[in-house]
Amino acid sequence: MDKYKNIAGGSNVLAFEMGVDSITIMFNSGAIYLYDYQSAGEYHVEQMKRLAKSGEGLNGYIKQYVDGNYAKKFA
Questions:
Q1: Residue 40 structural domain
Q2: Closest Cα to residue 44, out of 25, 19, 26, 69?
Q3: Which of 23, 37, 39, 50 is the most exposed place for a label (fewest CB within 10 A)?
Q4: HSE (side-chain half, CA atoms, 13 Å) at 1
Q5: What pLDDT score was predicted for residue 48?
Q6: Total structural domains in the chain?
Q7: Cβ atoms within 10 A of the Cβ of 30, count?
């Protein structure tokens, strides 16, 4: 997984890993969630990838648009 830059500070996102049609996100709590095109929608997954790369806004985006729409929880 790649470390999330957390440019603004205060994010609950710790790390992420991108797949072709998915993104896996690790939160500070240790919980890991997989979001894919089927669970969250292609548009939202691609937005999350963009925010993950930029290092800013990912946690807020998840809370606002895709909270609970994950394909799998790992921890």
A1: 2-73
A2: 69
A3: 50
A4: 17
A5: 98
A6: 1
A7: 9
Tokens of 7: 């440019």
Q: Taking Cα atoms as reference points, which of 69, 71, 27 lies closest to residue 52?
A: 27
Please compute, for residue 9, the number of CA atoms within 13 A of its CA located in the half-sphere on the CB side.
0
Instruction: Check: pTM over 0.90? Answer yes or no.
Output: yes
Residue 21: per-residue pLDDT: 98
Burial of 63 per CB tally in 10 Å (0-12, 13-18, 19+): exposed
* Residue 31 pLDDT level (bands cut at 50, 70, 90): very high
Q: What is the pLDDT of residue 75?
A: 75
